[in-house]
Amino acid sequence: MGGKIEARLIDLGIDLPETRSPAANYVPARRLGTQLYISGQVPQQDGTDKFTGKLGSTYSVEEGQAAARLCGINILAQLKQALGGDLDRVVGVVRLGGFVNAEPDFTDHPKVINGASDLMVEVFGEAGRHARAAIGCYSLPRNVPVEVDAIFEVS
């Protein structure tokens, strides 16, 4: 199904991946009224973790941003599936929650999560502007450096 957002993804050179089934007892997306919640996505590509390690030792801020952007791409893939393929049903991005696997002295968590935030604005324009949390943590599943979840308003 092609639409305005699909055309924008093509312009940005983004090919959304196939979604994967959850690895535990949860669902990838849940709708409540006009809000659609997308479970946390990690920087996985072609079925493998593209990034593993910590910000502040293994990865720079820029590399962390790339990992967060990949999380955002995976969020968009889950969103598309949950909306039956029609991303034009997105009214707006409500909130992103970003978790950064970082060394204790790392303090640039917001800059890392900008990788996902910037993507949402690139894809949805003003409707992509959102509230956000960027939280540092000691570890994440499979030692990935970033995990991002999202809430969207949809029609």
Shape assignment: globular
User: Which CATH architecture is right?
Assistant: 2-Layer Sandwich
Oligomer: single chain
Low-pLDDT runs of 5+ residues are none
Distance between the termini: 16 Å
In round numbers, the mean pLDDT is 97
Radius of gyration: 15 Å
Count of beta strands: 7
What can be said about the biggest beta sheet?
A: 5 strands, mixed
Which bin fits the share of residues in helices?
25-40%
Query: How much β-strand is present in the residues?
Result: 25-35%
Output the number of helix runs.
3
* Order of strands, widest sheet: 1-2-7-5-6
What is the top-level CATH class?
A: Alpha Beta
**CATH 4th-level superfamily:** RutC-like
Fill in the CATH topology.
60s Ribosomal Protein L30, Chain: A
Structural class: alpha+beta
Counting structural domains, the number is 1
The ordered H/E elements are: HEEEEHEHEE
What descriptors fit this protein?
globular; 155 residues; 28% strand; two-stranded antiparallel ribbon; five-stranded mixed beta sheet; Enamine deaminase RidA (YjgF/YER057c/UK114 family); RutC-like_sf; 30% helix; Endoribo_LPSP/chorism_mut-like; 60s Ribosomal Protein L30, Chain: A; alpha+beta
A few lines on this structure:
The protein is α+β, with helices and mostly antiparallel strands. Helices cover 30% and strands 28% of the residues. The protein has one domain: 60s Ribosomal Protein L30, Chain: A.
Describe it for me?
The protein is α+β, with helices and mostly antiparallel strands. It has a single domain (4-154), classed as RutC-like (60s Ribosomal Protein L30, Chain: A, 2-Layer Sandwich). Helix content is 30%, strand content 28%. It has a five-stranded mixed sheet. A two-stranded antiparallel sheet has the order 3-4. The longest helix has 22 residues, at 61-82. The radius of gyration is 15 Å and the shape is globular. This is Enamine deaminase RidA (YjgF/YER057c/UK114 family).
